[in-house]
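seq:
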Amino acid sequence: MQNTKYQYLDVSDQMKGLPQPPLELLAETAVPEIELPRPETITVAALDLRKAIEERASVRSYSRKLLTIEELSYLLWCTQGVKEVVQGTATFRTVPSAGARHCLETYLLINNVKNIKPGIYQHAALRHRIIEINTDRHIADKVTASCLGQNIIKTSAVTFIWTAVVYRMAWRYGERGYRYMHLDAGHVCQNLYLCAESIGCGVCAIAAFEDDEINQLLNLDGKDHFVIYIATVGKKQG
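struct:
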């Protein structure tokens, strides 16, 4: 925290006139993308905002009921939905971000979503699609182990794994950007908690994980791109 105070900051790369990094960083894969239903076509139950806030709680026990691809699309839209693209400059999304930098990428461990093979996927937010990354049959066990054996990883319908692309934020804010990346992760996770209520789901945020292990599972270098926050989602019991 001391080193990220304004008094210690150098001139940012943006101020130096250096080109900004891409708005999206996707894993290289030859596997076809899965197109998600457009958010405007998805209908969910009306839910009073105050009621959602009052009833928000971490849920660690889930039913075995499947999520639909429409519900998955809705959750992704509410947490990282792109409303507008300023070409090559910025994106405006459904969550706030310092300077509209939106340094986060969304990976998913899918366990129980109708018609989608279990495994790890990445959300291509600009096209609102998901890309298959790893469908090894043991991948859920490996992710669970990297999260200190928390079994809700395996019993969830889907686990959101948010990663931070450092330079996308640091380009503008330098070292100060490390603070903002964590703030952004909090904004995103709270949106997940609230929107999940409208489709009968519960959420549990997770910050306890072995950084090096889970970064390796996602083929991230752990320095310039690393896992910053995790949350499980599943249908509520009863």
